[in-house]
Amino acid sequence: MASSSSRKSGPSGSRPRAGAYSSRPRASASAGSGRPSSGRAGRQPSGRAGSSRSSQSRGYSSVRVGDLYDNRRRDRGNQRYRRYMIGVVTVAVLICGGVLGLLGAYHSQLFEIKHVTVSGVEHLTSEDMQALAAVEEGETLLRVDTAAIRNSLLRDAWVDDVVVRREFPDTLAIDVTERAVAAVVEVPTQDATDTKAWAIASDGMWLMPIPKAGTEAASKTSAKVYEDAANVLHITDVPYGTQAEIGTYCSDANVSNALAVVDGLTTQLADRVVSVQATDPESTTLSIEDGPDIVVGTAENIREKERVAIEIMAQHPEGVAYINVRTVDRPTWRAL
Fold this sequence. Notes:
10 helices, 3-stranded mixed sheet, Rossmann fold, alpha/beta, Ubiquitin-like (UB roll), single chain
């Protein structure tokens, strides 16, 4: 009886036997298997197989690294294209808006010309400039044809160059460079009974016939023309048949040689020249104020001819009546 009683009280006071089941529940069986798990039930499977099974159990899919790179590159390309198209559309809208704005301003009275300023003009009158520029009333700075105005002004013999500028908001500026009077040529009239004074520029351009003082034509001529005519030398003894026309270049050899002679002189002698006799190039003669006539001939070696003539006058302070330096190395002269 004692032994029987001792066995019954064993569970509460004695250690369990080896091999007996523990009161802690065992790990559950693997999913999809009725087989109990091993003693390493809490450890994760190792290797690719385990990773693949774990990813699949969590809903992940396998993607190559190269595919990810291609996708990112495609996305960046799409973004760049969208930005490019947005830029193109924006520029197109701005251009269209600007064109429409300019067209509206062009056909409106915006920037209407209220002032025309002219600079550099001395020989042309205000009436001449108005006729040449021909700026219509109501014209605007946007519509005005500056090239046409420039070409119209250049047709005048006095105008050597011209610049036409827009000065916003309402001013048209015209800057003129005029030709200067180099000499007055006494051109024989058609009936050879008289001569007519013509202003000529240093480049040989016939500028205008100078009206006689006191006439109606003279009242419409700038006073600067008469001032210049009084201060420049005169070319005289021009042969009959010499043609002069406003805005054309002189084609007469006698007048052209006389201009070249005057242009080649230094101020030491040029300021003393009163007139030039231009009968023919070989006999071109300078008339000197308070001095002798000097035959210079052609304009070739004119500086050397001038030097020799000045030396001869200096060597004869009592004065000389005539000097010929047409052949510069064999000059001749006649003393008083």
